Structures are given as structure tokens and as C-alpha cells.
Amino acid sequence: MIYFDNSATTLPHPDVVKAFGDVASQFFGNPSSLHHLGGKSAQLLDQARKVAADCLGVQPGEIVFTSGGTESNNAALKGVAIQHRSRGKHIITSSIEHASVYETCKQLEELGYSVTYLPTDDKGRVRPEDVQRALSDDTILVSVMYVNSELGTVQPIEEIGRILSAYPKTYFHVDAVQGFGKLPLMPGKWGIDLLSLSAHKFHGVRGCGLLYVRRGVMLSPLIIGGGQEGGLRSGTENVPGIVAMAKAMRMQHERLQENHEHMKKLRARLIDGLLPLEYCKLNGPGKDDAYAAPHIVNVSFPGIKAEVVLHALEKEEIYVSTRSACSSKNSKPSRVLLAAGIDEERARSALRISFSPDNTEAEVDVFIRAIQKIVPNLAKIMRV
Amino acid sequence: MQEIYLDHAATTPVHPEVLEAMLPYYRDMHGNPSSMHRFGQRVRHTVDEARSIIARCVNAEPGEIIFTSGGTEADNMALIGVMTANRDKGKHLITSQIEHHAVLHTCEYLESLGYEVTYLPVDETGRVAVEDVAQAIRPDTVMISIMFGNNEVGTLQHIGKIGKLAKERGVYFHTDAVQAFGIEEVDVKRLHVDLLSISAHKVNGPKGVGSLYARRGIKIASYIHGGNQEKKRRAGTENVAGIVGFARAAELAINTREERRAHYEKLRRMMMAVWDEQSVDYVVNGHPKFYMPHILNVSFPGTKTEAMLMKLDIAGVAAASGSACMSGSLEISHVLRAMNLPEDRLISAIRFSFGYGNTEEQVREAAERIARIVNKG
């Protein structure tokens, strides 16, 4: 089996699973309990928070554990929108965000907020000067993702952060779900106020994520109750999941450089193998573009529906996707690709290949050969 | 010294069978159920199966079960989701003074947004009077949220009667059944419940998973926006392993409900019998008849809760002052306060809660340790 759908979800690392199992079976106390079983869980939670903070170069008190990336994004956007509604009702985001940001913005529009959806260039990159132009006195939040999940475009986060440093009342949220473990990430240095991560995208377990909340940023909590996580996220902490996530974070963080280089090589090899095929078009960043994430390649086979190629690959035990899994039930072409100026036919035939550090060059070669076999055949059938 | 865990109302250990059921989904079955390929579709089927199991456990239809990250999220979603989706109907919500903070603080949040909330009182046993609910209903009342069984004192509410009343008066009825599920018979149809929250980690399932039952046809706004998961009612990649563990735990809990109830009842009586033998001065807080057998809340007049808990912890007995979610603080419990208990009972209350792994020997031993501590003063 060749699993090239790591942007949808990754395989938890065996050590991560072991950590999960150990904590779940041995340290089941509720961290809020006063007895020492609770104390032990609270200690594990503190350690995990410290590891997570270290991996991001921030303070432990700035980490809020959540149930995943979607919740983190919802918590950031709605949290700022509700808390600061008297100060302004304008939000700036991009037109290529993940559904959990995009749909939350749509919901906020219904509640009376105004949202600017910035366009991108033809590689799916937001222009920092567009952010600058869209800012107004009323702007309370800018939310731009770090790495686009469908095209693999790295956004100019540092530059946007620099622009926003002149606007202390405008918060900057970054959905870094696709970026962590693949690219350097320094929220403290880049002027980021809020940042979302999801464990299952970096070999942690599902149902776990975090939101970095810079000290001093006021948020209205999304989930209210017992007051856990400094009052920003109530609910009994998923200690085994959190410990497992911290473990995965540390592993990815420590191997960032080598993982990055390895996946970059895979990407280059894949593009070198596919681009000479006249029926194959690369979407998003080019092979040598500096703003290309190392783990995502998006290609189209115009004239052929992506699903058909996907299922043909599936027969060869190769798994890829057509777009973000969260939106996979839509029959329309990808909103993200259309927003990046890719035409409808090409968008309908787009496949996303996404790597993990465990993928190999040999797998890439098998994939290229499979495409060379499948696509021309399908093209023939389509012509008939 | 043997550690005796009597705090199962705070959280429970994961049942070994539950963990075993979960692990394959962290290994070779880790697909994303929303993925189009077979690798993802295979686990889509698993999620559907788990949904059917949870539905069966509360006598609902699979399509009426929404998986959440836990009981707190389910409560938030029920209250905020229904109140915001039914703004045209009214702005009034009825709840009780003894709800879990996941409900109470959410109500306060709704008040800050302009909604109106009636917090019904309880009697000294912790029960809400059905007549009080009836009287509180106004033309603009959208929903009633009354918990099934209280997590601190174990008192059961008149869920069936309130459900019937709500139905007659055209008001939605939500119940937080986080503590009652697996102990009491939870039948949403028979009890006329429209929305019901449960949590996996209270029934030997994993932490970080729960569900909200929302009766078909109910108007409820999505609470966490994003992908198309859970029919667009709750976005986010499904926590498949957690959901599988939840379903397994729920199944185990329902299948063993009667015998566990009998066992807890026995443990409870035994504990009190030991105290009676040893002339321990104690008073049971809660209802003498309508209670959940796994929760025993008692006051030891003359002692202080905090000091007692510390001594108990040193003696190897894990218990609680009330809800774990607020015990960081050690304020007087809002539940006991609402029950209008005298001061010496308020400041000396301890909650013991039974669960998986507790044996008669353990509980007898715990009761004796407790007796020694209390009698020493």
C-alpha cells in the first residue's frame, strides 16, 4: 500500500500510540481532582503543555488544548469576534482557507460581521499588500493559513505579521494545521496572536489539537463549563490524547530539518516524473518555488475526472485525494482551486498527493508508473 | 497500602476491552472517514456502526446522534445551538440551580447575549419540583434543560414528567445525562427527551468523546463550523478510535447495567453499615429514594471537606468534594448550597462514587479507613 494522503490524516507513530495506551490505562485520573491520581494526570498535562510550548517557542501558559484543528479555528475566530465585537466587526481572511475558517467566517457574516476574502495569485498565494489595503479601523482579526492544504502554497505569514505589528488592535490568527512539522514555525517571532494545530496531521492521535493564544489576547471561550484550560476551553482534558500529541510534536519538531529535506526530495522527484507527461498539469507552486510546502503536490489531468483517477489508483493500492477531505462530499470543483484562478475543467481533474516523512522515493516511482499506465488509458476511453 | 479509587463520577479508567477495540484504529485502520478512497471509506462504515450502537443505547435513531468532543461540548451545543436557531420563537430558557457548570456557565453566557434564563430551585434532597417547571414556562420559553441525575449528590430528577410537560407545552427538553447514562435506563422516546448529552469517559470509555442526541426535526444550529462531518452539525475529522471506544464502552455499560446497579447498591449499604458499626457521625446528602446508586455524598459534621480529602488521599482513598471540574477551587458546592443544607453539612461534604474495579473488600477497607479518620477527629 502506498499512502499519499497525509494531508487528510496521518498514521499515528507507534511510540505515540504506546504513549496513548500507557496513559489511558495507567493514569486515568481527572486532572482537576484533588487526590494524587488527579495530581498525576495534572502533572502529565503540565509536561505535555511544556513540550508543546517548547516546540513552538512560546510559553506553556499560551497553549490551550482543544479537540482538534477545526475546534481551534472556530475558537480563534468566534472567540475574537465575540469578545471584541464592540471594537469592530470586520475580519480579513483569504479565499483559500480551510472549511473550518471559511465556514466560520460565513457564519460570522450571518451574525452581522463583515468579512473580506482576499484573492490570491495564480499559485494560491495571498499578497501581503492586499492585507494592508483591506485593513480598516474596524478590523479586529486577520486569519490566513500557513500552508494551503490543497495546493501546498506557503503563505507570507511573516510579512503579514510585520504589517500587522503596526495595528496592535488587530489580531492575527494562523491556521498552521498543514505547516507544523513540515516547515519552521515561530509564532512568537512572526507576530502571530493565535495559531491552530491538529495532532492527527502530524502523526498524533485524532480528537486532539491546540490553540496558541498569545499572552494578553482576550478571547470569549467557545466551549464553556468547568473552566479548564484557563477558562478558555472547558471539558475534562483528554490527557492520553494530549500526552500523545506532545510526543508526536516533539518527534516532528526534532526531525523537522531532515523530514523537510526528505519530503522536498520526494516532491521534486514526483514533479520531475509527472511534468514531462503532456497530459499532466501542475497546480500551485512550481518545483523550485521557495513558497512550496515540501509535502503537497497538486496535479490535474485535464479532461479526466479526478475521482476516476483516484479509484484507478486505489486499485493499485495507492491512496491520494481530490481535495480537502473535509469538503470531499461536495460535487462542485474545489473552491480553493477556483479561487486560485484555476479553470473549472482543470479543477475538476485535480489530484492532491501528500507525503509523510515515511514515504520513499521508490513509492514515488511506483506512483509515476501507475499514472503513466492509468491516465493515457482513461484518456482513450474518454475519447471514445 | 492498596489505593482505592472512589471517584468514578469525576472520571473512570478505560476498560481494557475498550482500549483493545480502539487500538486497531491507530494502526492499520487510520483512514479519514471523509476520504473518497476505500482506505477512508472503510472507517466511515465503522463510525456508522458506532453511531447505531450509541443510538440503540438511548433508544434513538442513528441519524439523531451527533458525536462531540465530550459532555461539555454536547451541553454547549444543545443550549447555544437550540437557543440561537430558535431566536424567532423566544429568548427564554429554564434550567435548575444544580446543573453541571457546562450548563450553568453556558446559561450565563447566553444571558450575556441577551437571552433570559430561569434557574429553578431544588428541595433539600436536590430535586426540582415539576410544578415549578410548569409555572416557569412562558410564551417565549424555547427550552428546558434539567439534568438527569446530579453528579454531586446523585439525585434523580422527574425526567419523564418534565419531558411530558415540555412536550405538552411545545418546549424543547434537554437533559444532561452524563452521570446517569449507564446507571439509569435512558430512553429518549419513553421520557420525551428532545436533546440528551452523554460522555464516554464517565462509562469507562476514552476521554475526549461524547455525543449529543438531537431528536429528528429539532432546529439546532451548528456549533463548530467547517467540513461536512456529522451532517454539517459538527465539523472536524472524526475521532474514529475514540468513537469506537465510546461505542464499546456504552455497550458494556448498558449490558451490565442491572448487575452494576445492584453491586453499587450493595457497596453503598456496606459503606454505611461499616460507619454505623463504628459509630461514625455522618449524614447522607441527596434523595433517600430517587438516587443513582454509584454516588454517595455524605457530610461528616465537625470535619472540613478539604482536610478530610487530604487525609483520605494519604490513606489511599480517592474521593471528591463535588464536581471535579470545579474542585480546583474548593468553594462550597453550588449544588449543596442550592439544597439549603445547614452550614456544618455544607463544609464537611464528601462525594464517594463507585465504578469499574471496585470490590466489596475494597469498599469495606475504604469505609474502615474513613471511619478511623473521622473518629480520630
Automatic annotation (TrEMBL), chain A:
The keyword Iron applies. Belongs to the class-V pyridoxal-phosphate-dependent aminotransferase family. NifS/IscS subfamily. This is Cysteine desulfurase. The keyword Iron applies. Its cofactor is pyridoxal 5'-phosphate. Residues 2-367 form the Aminotransferase class V domain. InterPro entries: Aminotrans_V_dom (IPR000192), Aminotrans_V_PyrdxlP_BS (IPR020578), Cysteine_dSase (IPR016454), PyrdxlP-dep_Trfase (IPR015424), PyrdxlP-dep_Trfase_major (IPR015421), PyrdxlP-dep_Trfase_small (IPR015422). Pfam families: Aminotran_5. Keywords: Iron, Iron-sulfur, Metal-binding, Pyridoxal phosphate. It comes from Aneurinibacillus thermoaerophilus. GO terms for molecular function: cysteine desulfurase activity; iron-sulfur cluster binding; metal ion binding. NCBIfam families: PRK02948.1 (NF002806).
TrEMBL record, chain B:
It comes from the Bacteria. It catalyses: (sulfur carrier)-H + L-cysteine = (sulfur carrier)-SH + L-alanine. Pfam families: Aminotran_5 (PF00266). Its cofactor is pyridoxal 5'-phosphate. One of its GO terms (molecular function) is cysteine desulfurase activity. InterPro entries: Aminotrans_V_dom (IPR000192), Aminotrans_V_PyrdxlP_BS (IPR020578), Cysteine_dSase (IPR016454), PyrdxlP-dep_Trfase (IPR015424), PyrdxlP-dep_Trfase_major (IPR015421), PyrdxlP-dep_Trfase_small (IPR015422). Keywords: Iron, Iron-sulfur, Metal-binding, Pyridoxal phosphate, Transferase. Gene3D superfamilies: 1.10.260.50, Aspartate Aminotransferase, domain 1, Type I PLP-dependent aspartate aminotransferase-like (Major domain). Residues 4-364 form the Aminotransferase class V domain. Its EC number is 2.8.1.7. Belongs to the class-V pyridoxal-phosphate-dependent aminotransferase family. NifS/IscS subfamily. NCBIfam families: PRK02948.1. This is cysteine desulfurase. The lineage of its organism: Bacteria, Bacillati, Bacillota, Bacilli, Bacillales.
